[in-house]
Amino acid sequence: xxxxLVACAVLALSVAVPAVAADLTYETPAAPSxxxxxxxxxxxxxxxxxxxxxxxSQAKILGSDQDIVSGMSGLHAGYNFQSGNIVYGxxxxxxxxxxxxxxxxxxxxxxxxARVGYAWDRTLFFATAGxxxxxxxxxxxxxxxxDGILIGWTAGxxxxxxxxxxxxxxxxxxxxxxxNKDFGSTIGDVGATQDKVLFGxxxxx
Length: 205
Hints:
The chain is mostly beta strands. 11% of the residues lie in helices and 66% in strands. It has an 8-stranded antiparallel barrel with strand order 1-2-3-4-5-6-7-8.
């Protein structure tokens, strides 16, 4: 009798142990590829936002340089595409400059640019470049008053971060060269350059 009980117990264990061992089998997850960084956040889509900051401009008038330091605020809008960690797209912005020089001012500036960057999940490091325009105004008692639009180029870069799926914050630096424009026989050619630091927020749709 006892022998039969022991035999039954041994048989039961011989069946149960492999089954339990099979259930406890651990599969090692696949290791990520070397150098690969996940970008779970989706940067693609349309966005619209506002920005503000400071600009340091220099106007060249009648052979002399006029320095203009100004606070500024404006709007931006763009569209991003994403391929893996690479984000690229287009952006337009318009800024109003508050401070004016006694003889010259850059009342506003605008741009149409391409952007390309590397996304580290919710953080984007980007470079940008494109066409820039500025609204120049000259007021010199001996030469008269004149307004004109100067057109040139702009380039820079910055960092953008997705605080939520829809709210983005950014900081960027850009240099712009607005070229030269003829403001008439009494004033001649007027040129302007600008360096600016901007901070902004956007809503991604």
